[in-house]
Amino acid sequence: MKRFLCYLLLMVAAFFLQNNVFAASTLIMTVPNILLILVFSFGFIRGSVDGMLLGFGCGLLTDVFFAGVLGASALIYTVLGYLIGLLGRYYYTEFADMPLILCLISDLVYHLGVFVIMFLLRGQTHFWPYLTGVIVPELLYTAAVAIGLYPLLRRLNTLIEKWEVRKTKSFV
């Protein structure tokens, strides 16, 4: 229950950062996908169940506030959280190179899913402008933010685990 509340607070904070703080910046015309960083980080660190839980919550937040199709982002984020969670079993999560690669792959898969669900199914087949105008700038910006944010999320996960163990041991 404590972890669920922490995840809820993290989702709201990441949503606020992504859509208010970074969106208000006029420095770059794109916004990093902080919610995706949150999903792949905890999916990679904690496993498939946590990745799916955060993915569904982050996707639902995105769908409720921005999407025309309710559930599209939730589906994409949930599948990404699950797949990244599977990879977390096989790769060492301490180093920054694998999470950075997963960040790039996750963002690319997310945008390909959005393109298929939101554009291609509606008959809009102009992929090149979407690739050059949206996907590539966001990939680079999200990767740059993930380099700094992933170690912080690892430390936060460690603090949450210590908090859970400490509160559990106090009742025994």
Textual characterization of the structure:
The chain has 172 residues and is mainly alpha-helical. The chain has six helices and no strands. It is globular. The model has no long low-confidence stretch (mean pLDDT 87).
**Largest sheet, strands/sense/barrel:** none
SS-based class: mainly alpha
Please give the count of helices: 6
CATH architecture identity: Orthogonal Bundle
Q: Give the overall shape, derived from the CA principal axes.
A: globular
- What is the CA-CA span between the terminal residues? 18 Å
CATH fold-level assignment: Arp2/3 complex 21 kDa subunit ARPC3
Number of domains: 1
List keywords for this structure.
mainly alpha, 172 residues, 81% helix, Arp2/3 complex 21 kDa subunit ARPC3
List the helices and strands and how they pair.
Layout (H helix, E strand, L loop, with lengths): L1 H23 L9 H13 L1 H18 L6 H19 L6 H23 L7 H44 L2
Helix pairs in contact: 1-3, 2-3, 2-4, 2-5, 2-6, 3-4, 4-5, 5-6
Describe this structure in a few short sentences.
The protein has 172 residues and is an all-alpha fold. It has helices at residues 2-24, 34-46, 48-65, 72-90, 97-119, 127-170.
